[in-house]
Design a protein that fits this description.
409 residues; alpha+beta; Alpha-Beta Plaits; Nucleotidyltransferase, domain 5; 3 domains; four-stranded antiparallel beta sheet; DNA/RNA_pol_sf
Length: 409
Amino acid sequence: MLPRRRRHGGPEMKSYDLHKAYKNLPLSSGAVEIAYLSVYNPHKKTAEVFEQCVLPFGARASVHSFCRTSLGIWTAGVQILLLTWSVYYDDFVSCEVPPLTRMSDLCAESLFRLLQWDTSPDKPTTFGSIAKVLGLEFDLGDTRLGRFYMRNTANRRDELRGNISSILEQGSLPRKECERLRGRLQFASNQIAGKGAGRAFKVLTKHLVNNRSAVGDDLKHALLFLRDCFLDGPPRSLNANILHLWHVYVDASCDDNKVGLGGVLVSEQGSKVAYFSEWAADEMKAIVAPTSKNPIFEFECLAVLLAIKTWSGLISGCNLVIFPDNEGTKACLVKGSSDNEVGMAIVDNVHRSLDEMGCNAWFERVNTASNISDGPSRGEQSESLGVRFVTDATSVARSALVPWGSVNA
């Protein structure tokens, strides 16, 4: 008779932050003799000299030395105590199944005590489904369903909101402060799904390049969007499907007033699984490009959106490599923004759809001669391309572009 397997919940995490880490590493006897800091005292209106006995915080050599030390602690935990943990500077994150969390915690805490390292008291004292590290929050609550989330902590979001609110109240954003704000926002954006802040970052960068201080209307709207919408965006997510990869080839053709859209879905094994081939109806052409004489860019962008909508049931949660053969289309999708109003609306819809499906997309250009979707974009149909999907391209265009179409009408 087989023994009954113990059932338990999903894995749990706990973070350990070394308390005043740099102050635990003294300088060598040879270095102490030359380790002095001169600091101006505004009260006494004179410079004062202080002896440095430990690693100076933030110095490049200090970081290198400390990283070697923290790596040594991590190695001891892995090889001697068989801990399942990771390290980033002075933050250690341990992950374990519930029955073993107490033993894992005992081993980690004992290792720190043996090496005479204190851990920060403000960190959680027990394992749980959520761990906070360096302003990030890891959520394992849905791991049994194959999903993992990573987001910015509430403190980090509140801090960034406060910084933006202060800038808006003052009406000024000097170059140095702009560089600092942009860097912090870009780091925070790595934990927020999608490229919804593409246009806002573009305005912020333009303000930085122009070396201005006054906050204009464009910058004001960008900062308001970042503060009120973007920072509360959906978290980054990973799921079991992320182990799978799809290649999506798309193309559009504009010949003799005929517009065609084509796409081919290829598996990671190189098999052609599905394709679509559609001619644009007059209604769709009126929506996408009512005045443009050569609307190839707009329709190349639309082909990407049509492919994502058509195969959403197959590619949801997976890695994607999307191949248009138009350099402008690729550049806009990578940046998440476009100076073309129609292109911008489609790019927004592309990234919003990818966010909703939890897809991790990479955009790359394929040479026209190598684009297997060139034929379908010109009406060619073949069983060698897989199963043909019939799409409603007009409805997809209408859902993405009706506001623009109504304005242009």
